[in-house]
Structures are given as structure tokens and as C-alpha cells.
Amino acid sequence: MAGAPSLTRRASFTEISMQFRPETDRTPSAEPLHQQTESSQQNRAAAEDGLPLPQRYIAAAAVLAAIVLAVLDGAIANVALPSISQTLAVSPSASIWVVTSYQLALVVGLLPCAALGESFGFRRVFTTGVIVFTLASALCALSPSLGWLIAARFLQGLGGAAIMSLIAALLRLTYPQRLLGTAIGWNALAVALSSAAGPTIGAAILTVADWPWLFAVNVPVGVLVLIASRFLPTNHGTGRRLDLLSVMLNAGFFAPLVFGAELLSSRPAIGAVLLVAAVMSLVALIRRELHRQAPLIPLDLLRAIPFRISVIASVCCFTAQMVSYVALPFYLQQGLGLPALETGLYMTPWPLAVALAAPISGHLSNRIPTAWLCAAGGVCLAVGLLGCALWPLQDDLTPFIPLSILCGLGFGFFQTPNNRNMLLSAPRARSGAAGGMQSTARLTGQTVGAVIMALLFTQISADIAPRVGLALAAALALAGGIVSTLRLEK
């Protein structure tokens, strides 16, 4: 028995060292063949090779349809706010809670839903999320009051969190590793097109029907996704229990962060208090989760340098994206005097260019080091944003179109390879946490970007704030590209 502790320590070290080695460098277990059952060999082969055809296509269609539902519903609700305000006889400021409640549930639920996916199986939690999202959509359509609608939207956001947090993990099990970049590219394409088409689809529905139909149309699509979900890959969960106190601390971090960021410019004292509360909750959460094998906030993954670099780069570029998305409408409308419709048309090339670049960069990421693709994407995004900030567009607005296209191409060439690297930097068993961290990094960057523009509008003239914001966005995009190159040394 005296030798048992040393054997235990040796085994633990081996497990830890294997956990953070790149997946492409791992070798099969050296255990005797007679200890490997036929079912374990089949499970390993399925994990490495993805699903067979045509099951792979059906599973991919179900995953993409679900992410389109979640993204599209977040985009089209903004268009309905005036109609909701008038129909339910509430103030415009109160109707904004229809959007805020969905976003709040989404950001609070991402990491817990990822942990549930690892515990109970990705397909089971994903399917539950689709069910919750579909039922909540029906409740939104039937809402008789604003309170009912806000509660239903919060429930819908929780369903969306289960969908978004497990997309990457399901794609990893659906596709063989050699095609994973392509799969992530198609997912980015679906997200880009959904975001771009959301306001247009919402406006089209509102021209022929009342606002409840914006949510009712989700129901049949959700049912179809549920039917197709039986073709999704299955995996056995770890059975780990979800720590409720950690979940509460997670909510105590993200909820005050979102509200504090929104109030920082209009009510700085309250906003500052909420941000301090968010930091305190984050510190408590890190201390509680620091030494756990699979923490709710993936500290184990963040210790791996490639994963950490990808997260930092993602936050930088999504912050740059949100700063520009807020600054450009003000610049085009107030600075250059364009009407709203023309402003929308001039901004359309950006998401269309993202949709074009995403599958191409996904295909290339299977063959070219992702660090170079991310660096090139960050540089292109930075050049496009800096051009928008410095070019004298008052004389001629034509150069804005190629600059906007360059921004979209740059972001598309950054996002897909970065997400691929983030996913493959994590052990397969922690794919859920990696996917949850992808979405969390995106939402964190978008929140920080909104705060930056709010502070700029309060501190400097509204005439120059958008161009200053675009210049800052260019610096952030360049930083994201430079950070990505650090992976080349690892």
C-alpha cells in the first residue's frame, strides 16, 4: 500500500498532461486490446470520424436551423417594439425590457447550460433547449400583457442559451476533424445571414400581420428541429452535479455587468455600484471554482495558452464589431445626413461580406494555420475601420462601400478560424464548456463595445464621437489580430 499514493500521483499527472495536448497530437490508449470492448471501439471511431452520411447532413441542418431561430429571434424583436408598446399600452422605455430580458437570460444561461450539456449529454440538453425555446415562443405570441411577454422572453432566452452553448460541441461530434473548420464556417454563415436579415424579415411580417406572429412563426420551425434532432450525435454525460451556488454567482456576475454597463453613461453612480457587485461575484466564483476538475467558468481551459489567446482575441474583435455597429449609424445619419433607409443599405455589405468569407475561411482553416488567418482577418478589419474613420466621406460616400466590404471580409476571416482553434484547444469531453466560452466571449465583447460608445457620447462631442469610436475599434481589431499570432510560438 505504500506505493499506492505515488501511482495515483503519476496517473493524475498523465491525465492532466493528456488533457491539454492538442487533439491532433494525441495517440490511442495503450491498454490491452482485450480490455477494449467492441462498443468502446465503435464510440471512439464515431467520435473521430463524425456521423455517417446522410445522418451528418440531417444533424447539421437541425443544428443550423436551431441557431438561426435563436439569432433571428433576437434580431427581429427590436423591429416590433413600437407595435408592442402601442398594442399593450406601455411606454417605449418599458417595451425595451422585451429585448433586455432575452439578452439577460442568454448571457446568464450560457455557461450553466454548457455545464449541463457535459453532465447529461449534449443532445439531451440541446433538445431540451429547443423545446423550451419553442414553448416560450408560443407563450410570447399569446402574451396578454407586458409582464407576461417579458417573462416568456426570459424563458425563451434560457432556451436560446442551451442552443447556443452546445452548437460547437455538437458540430465537433457531427463532423470529422478534417472538416470541422468548414462546419464552423457554415455556422458562422448562418449567424451572419440571420443577423443581417432579421430586421427585414421582422418588417415584412409586420406588414401583413400583428407582432405576435413574429414569435408564432418559431413554433413550426422548432417542431421540425425537434423531429430532426433524433439524428444528432449522442454522447454519455459525466453525471457531474451542477453547483447551484456557482450558478448563482455566475448570474451575480453577468446580470449586474449587463445592467451596470447600460446605466454607466446615464446613471454613473448606480452603474458603478452594479459593476463593483459584478466584480465581487466574479472573484467569489473564481475562488470557488479554481481547483475543480471541470469548473463552471472554464478556468481549466483558460490555463491552456492557445485557448486563452483565442478568447482574448475574440473579445477584442467582437468589441470592435459592436463599437462600429453603434458608431456607423450615427456617423452616416447625423454626420453625413443620410436617411435611415439609405443608412441601412450602406451597412448591408458588411454582414454580406461576413457571410461570404465565413465558409471560405472555414475551408482554409483545415489547411492553413489558423493564427495566420486570424491575423490577416484582424488586419483587414482594422484597415477597413480606420479607413471609415479617416476618409473624407463628406465629399464622396462611394469609398465607404469597399471599406465596409473589407471590414466584413476581415471579420469573417477572423471569426471562423478563431472559433475552430478555441474548440480544438479543449479536450473533447470539455467541448460544451468551450462552446459556452465562445458565446460568452462574443457577448462580453459586444457589451464592452456598447459601453465604450456610450462613454464616448457622454464625454466628447456627438459630432466626432462616432469617428473616434471607429478609430478605437480599428485599434482593437488590430490587437485581436496581433494576439492571434502568439499562437504560432506555442
From TrEMBL:
It is a multi-pass membrane protein. It is found in: Membrane. Residues 21-46 are annotated as: Disordered. The keyword Hydrolase does not apply. Pfam families: MFS_1 (PF07690). Residues 59-490 form the Major facilitator superfamily (MFS) profile domain. Its main location: membrane. The keyword Acetylation does not apply. This is MFS transporter. It comes from Rhizobium setariae.
